[in-house]
Amino acid sequence: MRDTTGKIYPEHLQEYYQLIDTTHQFYSIQSTTNSYEFSQTHFAKATYRPTKNIIHCYTLTNVATHSSLHLAILPMGCKANIQLQSIKPNIGSQTFACINGQIHIDKPLWKAGVLKATFDFQFYNHLAPKTPLYWKGKIFTRIVSID
Fold it and tell me: Whole-prediction pTM value?
């Protein structure tokens, strides 16, 4: 695919750019948090379980982000928590419960199978009770049905 100088052969350019093109991966969350071991996340997934009538939305982690926001959207409300899978052995896995907050969901898109929402949550920080955790931002992702 490349010549001895590292240049890509013209006949392989289209295939090369198809391999490295990530422009089709649209960010599905824009948020800020003071959660532990959090750098940034740009992707959230939402799944619907018809047997339980629950939509579960969660942010994806990466090499620099070990905290994930989890939302259980029920017919009568939303339950939020932060799940931390720490790389520090003395901390390990932790769950931080939501103590306050709100989520506003776009109803027409919701009916069309898309979660578009703004949210602002506060969480109890049992590791440092004087420093509450927060997570706020916007989500826009397709809801995928599973079961």
Answer: 0.82
For the beta carbon of residue 119, count every other beta carbon within 10 angstroms: 21
Cα–Cα nearest to 138, from 26, 43, 31, 25 = 31
Q: How many domains, the chain?
A: 1
Confidence bin at 12 (pLDDT 50/70/90): confident
Which is nearest to 29 in space by CA: 76, 73, 68, 64? 68
**What is the residue-wise DSSP string for 45-81?**
EEEEETTTTEEEEEEPPBTTB-EEEEEEEETTEEEEE
Residue 74 lies in a domain: yes
Domain housing 99? 23-145
Amino acid making up residue 41: T
Q: Is residue 1 part of a domain?
A: no
- pLDDT digits over 62-115, tens only? 888 999 999 999 999 999 999 999 999 999 999 999 999 999 999 999 999 999
Do the Cβ atoms of 66 and 84 come closer than 8 Å?
Answer: yes
Cα–Cα nearest to 68, from 79, 60, 77: 60
- Please give the radius of gyration of the chain, using alpha carbons only, rounded to the nearest integer: 19
